[in-house]
Amino acid sequence: MKKIYFLFAAVLFSVCVSAQDFVETNSGETYNAYITNEDSSSIAFTFSRDGQKVDTIIPRADIYNFRYSVMADTTIAGYHAKSAISIGVGLGGSTYGGVEYEYMFCEKVGLQGGVGYSGFSAGINYHFLPTIRSTYLSLQYTCKGIGNTDKDWGYRNTLIGPAIVYRGKKWLTFNFGAGYVLDKGPAYSDNEDVKVRLTAGLGIYFPME
Length: 209
Hints:
Layout: H1 2-18, E1 21-25, E2 30-38, E3 42-49, E4 52-59, E5 63-67, E6 83-89, E7 98-104, E8 109-116, E9 119-127, E10 136-144, E11 157-167, E12 172-184, E13 196-208
Antiparallel strand pairs: 1-2, 1-5, 2-3, 3-4, 6-7, 6-13, 7-8, 8-9, 9-10, 10-11, 11-12, 12-13
């Protein structure tokens, strides 16, 4: 179990590191940022300084090096959107598939809710950058299954725990996390007395202007 937790922590760290763009100037200043636009004359980007959002534009002549995050290769519209819908497997409290909606009510913090094939979820999210198109940490509550003992639809368990959710600049999203088992239902099929279960999901998302 300790190996699983170590692997989980390593994945969290690597995704967080790769979630931001990088800009370095000729004077040696470096920025972990979000590049919002680039053209033949300048680079525009956003970064955080002392907890505050800073938007800046630097001429290309003053840029020594810049790169996009490992999992994104270009900028895209929707940077200023305040909400997004995600669709995919492992979302909305269901292993099979679901939909989630998030609304950012302040610069980096959002609330989300979702429904799935057999379940529902809710969470509060902290984004690494002040945009809906950024990776975030989430504290999630998930209820899997409803009502009866049917294999697919029956209530299995409720979980609460953290997750890291990656959002690319175009459409890709995936998550990996862990949930503490709050309660078990009649359709719970695991013979072990598991206290913590890993969670994962994969899908696409659409910012809403």
